[in-house]
Amino acid sequence: MSYGNYADIIIDISHENLDKTYQYAIPEEFITKAVIGSLVVVPFGKGNRQINGYIIDLSSEPKLDVNLIKPIIRVEDAPVIESHLIYLAYWIKEHFGGTINDALKTVMPVKKAVKIKEQRSIRLMVENQKAKDLFYEFQSKKNQAARVRLLGALLEKKVLDYDDAIHKLKIPRSTILSLEKKGITKTVSKQVYRNPIQEQEISSSKVILNPDQQQIVDDIIEEYKKGIRTTYLIHGVTGSGKTEVYMEIISSVIAQGKQVILLIPEIALTYQTVLRFYRRFGDRVSILNSKMSQGERYDQSLRAKNGDLDIIIGPRSALFTPFMNLGLIIIDEEHENSYKSETTPKYHAVDVAIKRAELTGSSVILGSATPSLESYNKAKKGIYQLYTLNKRAKEALPPKVWIADLREELKNKNKSIFSMKLKELITDRLEKKEQVMLFLNRRGYAGFISCRSCGHVIKCPHCDISLTSHNNGRVICHYCAYEEGMPKRCPSCGSKYIAAFGTGTQKVEELVKKEFPHARTLRMDTDTTKQKGGHEAILKAFSEHRADILVGTQMIVKGHDFPKVTLVGIIAADLSLHAGDFRAGERTFQLLCQAAGRAGRDALPGEVVIQTYQPEHYSIVTAAEGDYISFYNQEILYRTMMQYPPVAHILLLLITSKVEKEAEKASVLIGKAASHFVEEHGLKATVIGPAPAAVTKINDIYRRILYIKHNNYEELIGIKNYLEGYYKFSEYFSKCHLQFDFNPMSGY
Ligand code: ADP
Ligand code: ZN
Ligand code: ZN
Fold it and tell me: Which residue's alpha carbon is at the smallest distance from atom 21 of ligand 1?
């Protein structure tokens, strides 16, 4: 550890203009406490306002006139950020945009030390017989009732919780003290960590791995023991036993004295999942989730830091758990959107995990049934090592998938939202007293225009992205701002059944009730799950078979096991297929595979009906066949042709303002500056837009976007840095805000 007389400090204000360090002097008394990563209080500005900051570097040399350097006021008792995490914060800021302050807050999930709960207990200090004698002695005297209660309880239990003694047994503190003085009892205090997992009986529930699983485990462990550190991708269908593989590898890595981070999407972080790990690893494993209090989070990071934990399981933010001996990071369901931060810095957990692994000498394992195009592409290029598990571990048959062509239904005069096949199968399940899930994949839904007769979808001639309808009766591309009038007839077949596509879960539920009046239905979407616990209550009711049909958005397809569900209906696969962004096909494939995985998980075989106007679309055909490789091969062609990620990189700029004109003006100026920079430096980058965002206004804040496409990420960072400076130092943008998103995952 190096000590310095001066510290470079980042001031804790998220304001772009303060995105630099300030030097402060370290008073003698703080020399040992002020280390890199410490949270400090310093005087700031003309008024010497007291403000928080983080030490990010130390030196013995003043950078200015010594008389101008102010001293640190105090060093807080907060957890110190590890120096490699500070480096990681820099890297995140550089690669994903935002200020260093934003990045530091990202890597340090717990800001302040939270008082650790103290557990006090009272113990008996004399032998049993002696205690009994005393008990009878007190009993025979007057005014000794409290002593009798206390001794009686201690004779029964040996150890008594202090708070229980006071509150439940109503024993005065003075009584406890007096017995302690006589040497009969003793109050002992122990710091306890708040373990969010309640004690459970631990049984070693190890399965015997099948040869495919064993091969992966052997390979990875062998390399690990040889000191090889790299990134692995396990492509394994749902239920193929990936989690068992993780557990086996984890157990070997921790046996080598290392620690492990396991990321799981929050929605899949269910009690059952955690229990599996708890059963295997006992209280050396802990979890983090968004429902935990600051105190609980603080304890977990302290336990991690002190080496009292081997494994932490959690969502994206668990990636920054301050392990001192990190050896492995596993990211399950690595394709999930939730691994991309929605707030600045908009980092992707996979990239950051690989960087942290590099800084700490760890390996990374990514796992998915439907890997992201990015990861699979890297695996094919040999950047990641690929393993495949293509059979379910337990002999469960894959579901039978039907594709219902909604164009045909219209021709046959069926105008309802249920195809004949879906109606027939729902009726069948209701008779058999089995359960049905109806799924409306509305994510990213942006009002695309399609023909109900032939399935034709209106697309942007420049971007090959579905155009979306606007209030003003025009249709527009949210990438390049191309627009045209709303067509009256289908440009492909001339039919007049062309319109913005849309239906909601509530509407679907109503139609279910009309069509199947005797079925009991439940609905799960953002409306019905708003109340706390709403989500769990609906799932519980459905799992107890208190309803026959569950209607819902993608919320219902993730990770829940309902053994009695033997039919899954996808109302309109087109909703996510034409969501107006370049990942629409990939997301549809993932959602359909996941939805199909919900049907027939247990003894009963399952069926799936996918309703669509484009039954020939490769995302739908390959999902129906459960054929990831075919999907990948076709999707990567599209990405190559259009130069979309992972073939090239896209930097999205979101420009927001309360004043519509300002946002417009700023987006045009920034677009021009970008084009200039690109031209001046002879870069092969393309500037697309500006265009209004798909969501043009949120909370009265106007949103415009710009895209810059380039196949060199490092050069794209250069463009970002230039634009960041341009935005920061120009007077035009005082009423605007600029955010960056590299290779965006969500619609804007
Ligand atoms: P995934 O993580 O790929 O979805 P899991 O590891 O959760 O798969 O396995 C699915 C189910 O199969 C679990 O109930 C698991 O206990 C069981 N399983 C996995 N591997 C085996 C095996 N080798 N033998 C028996 N059961 C297994
Ligand atoms: Zn048509
Ligand atoms: Zn376009």
Answer: 393
CB under 6 Å to ligand 1: residues?
A: 207-210, 213, 236, 238-244, 393-394
Q: What percent of the chain has pLDDT over 70?
A: 92
Q: Please list the alpha-helical segments (H only) found in 643-747.
A: 660-680, 713-729
Considering only 234-243, 393-402, 422-431, which range has the smallest mean pLDDT? 393-402
Q: Which atom of ligand 1 is found nearest the CA of 276?
A: 16
231 vs 341, 554, 585, 675, 745, CA distance in Å? 21, 30, 26, 36, 22
136 phi, psi to nearest 5 deg: -65, -35
Two structure tokens written together for 308: 């009292």
Distance from residue 213's CA to the centre of ligand 1 (Å)? 10
Instruction: Give the tokens for residue 317.
Output: 């933010």
Residue nearest to atom 22 of ligand 1 (CA): 209
Distance CA 631, CA 372 (A): 11
Ligand 1 atom 9: the closest Cα is on which residue? 241
Q: What is the pLDDT of residue 99?
A: 87
Name all domains of the chain by residue range, CATH numbers in brackets.
6-107 (3.40.1440.60), 118-191 (no CATH), 211-389 (3.40.50.300), 400-445+502-640 (3.40.50.300), 649-742 (3.30.70.600)
Cα 419 to ligand 2 centre (Å)? 19
Statement: the pTM of the whole predicted model exceeds 0.85: no
Q: Which ligand is nearest to the CA of 277?
A: 1
Q: H helices within 145-210, ranges in order?
A: 145-157, 162-167, 173-181
Which of 207, 215, 264 most suits a substitution to test ligand 1, by most atoms within 8 Å of the C-beta?
Answer: 207
| Cβ-contact 305, 315 below 8 angstroms | no
What distance in angstroms lies between residue 33's CA and the mean position of ligand 3's atoms? 56
Q: What is the pLDDT of residues 331-371, one digit of tens each?
A: 999 999 999 999 999 999 999 999 999 989 999 999 999 99
Among 242, 394, 561, residue to substitute to test ligand 1 (most atoms within 8 Å of Cβ): 394
Other beta carbons within 10 Å of 605: 13
* Contact predicate 234/367, CB 8 Å: yes
Average pLDDT over residues 557-580: 84
pLDDT digits (tens, 9 = 90+) for 577-625: 887 789 999 999 999 998 887 776 666 778 999 999 999 999 999 999 9
491 C-alpha to ligand 2 centroid (Å): 7
